[in-house]
Design goal:
single chain, about 400 residues, FAD/NAD(P)-binding domain, 6-stranded mixed β-sheet, globular
């Protein structure tokens, strides 16, 4: 593969990861078609937290300044005891944090970040965006690959990237590892206008309220015009749901163990519910000319706030490797997986392990509070440095594939 001879890349999935990898690959002169099964390129959900590692990836994609301009910079991550109302600790995100990691920590509306990526793709002549293109699967040979759509249309490609989410059809064909892993946790999300929010709520912080088998998070989005609220409850849910409208009374009942936030939970009766799922880490992300990216490769619970950041990192690494002019295609994709596997597996693990931190009860919660309160800001920064401080760069094939 040579950058002087552009290749055809098909991306299954028009979410944040799919659009990001399209930008990264097209920047090296390749032709990219993004296939989105929905009639429009849209993104569900509300808030996204972007640590410096995610913003660095956006810098590489040429969108860093634009995203920073529309995002809300946070001054701290606040950890609260949702039972007692105690402020346990805060991780400062200004001054020393920015000096150490080279960037602020920001929050954005998911739809706004998606729109910025989408607009950038529309401005690149080498990127074609195709809605109403539901991918059924793929075939391949030594000479090339083919994407098969539900409409029975067949699209030729040199490289196929499965960025089609946790229920990825590309992954199903490649790995066939069944349904995602059910966490038994139901998450409820709502947004409310900031002018309805009590004055005691910090407008410049991500705040966690922890309690027995539950926790509640809130932070501003849309330039500070709205408060994004997310409540999580371990209720042993056995039926998977995604975006189901839910009455406020049901949310407040589920979060009854957090008396300190009853007034905030009462701000909205327009909630949506998701049962949280992930998958355990795997070694094989590739099949010849086909590779997985983002949630299709390494879906994770949202407790480390790194899902979008890791998909953006994937995109930068894969785009860089495809721009190196390396033969053959399968070797390039193996190099990409080798460069990303250890890091994303670690983030998947910490995301699931964090449940114990947020959902502790009784003596375990008291011990947690004491341990966190005893940590100095520098120590708190040390705990996240491996995630927030990373500036991913693809290794040359000779370094990873010897």
């Amino acid at each position: 593969m040579s950058t002087r001879a552009p290749v055809r890349v098909l991306v299954a999935g028009g979410g944040i990861g799919g659009l990001a990898v399209a930008l990264a690959v097209a920047a090296h002169g390749h032709h990219v078609t993004v296939l989105e099964r929905q009639p429009e390129f849209t993104e569900l959900g509300a808030g996204i937290q972007l640590a410096p590692n995610g913003l660095y990836a956006l810098d590489v994609l040429g969108l860093g300044p634009q995203v920073r301009a529309s995002a809300v910079a946070m001054s701290e991550l606040r950890f609260m005891d949702g039972v007692s109302g105690e402020h346990v600790t805060s991780m400062p995100l200004t001054e020393e944090y920015e000096r150490r990691f080279g960037s602020p920590y920001v929050v954005v509306h998911r739809a706004e970040l998606h729109r910025q990526l989408l607009d950038a793709c529309r401005g690149r002549p080498r990127i074609t965006l195709r809605p109403n293109a539901s991918v059924a699967g793929y075939t391949q040979s030594a000479a090339g690959a083919t994407v098969h759509l539900d409409s029975r249309e067949q699209l030729p490609a040199d490289v196929i990237i499965g960025a089609d989410g946790i229920h990825s059809r590309i992954r199903r064909q490649m790995i066939d590892d069944g349904e995602p892993r059910n966490s038994g946790i139901t998450a409820y999300r709502a947004i409310v206008p900031m002018d309805r929010v009590p004055a005691r709520v910090r407008r410049d912080a991500v705040t966690w309220w922890a309690g027995p088998d539950c926790h509640f998070v809130h932070y501003p989005i849309s330039g500070g015009a709205y408060l994004n609220m997310a409540a999580s409850h371990f209720n042993g849910a056995s039926t998977l749901i995604a975006g189901r409208p839910t009455e406020g009374a049901l949310v407040r009942a589920a979060m009854s163990q957090l008396p300190a936030v009853r007034d905030l939970l009462s701000l909205s009766d327009d909630w949506r519910a998701w049962v949280l799922v992930d998958r355990p880490p795997i070694d094989g992300w590739t099949d010849g000319r086909v590779a997985l990216l983002g949630d299709a490769a390494h879906p994770m619970l949202h407790y480390a706030a790194q899902g979008a950041c890791q998909a953006l990192e994937d995109a930068v690494v894969l785009g860089d490797l495809l721009g190196h002019g390396v033969e053959p295609v399968s070797r390039v994709l193996l190099e990409y997986a080798a460069a990303r596997r250890e890091r994303t597996s670690a983030v998947q693990g910490i995301s699931r392990d964090s449940i114990r931190l947020w959902h502790a009860a009784g003596d375990a919660a008291s011990a947690r509070n004491r341990a966190l309160a005893a940590m100095a800001p520098e120590q708190l920064h040390d705990t996240v440095a491996w995630m927030h401080g990373a500036r991913v760069a693809a290794r040359r094939p000779s370094e990873a594939m010897r």
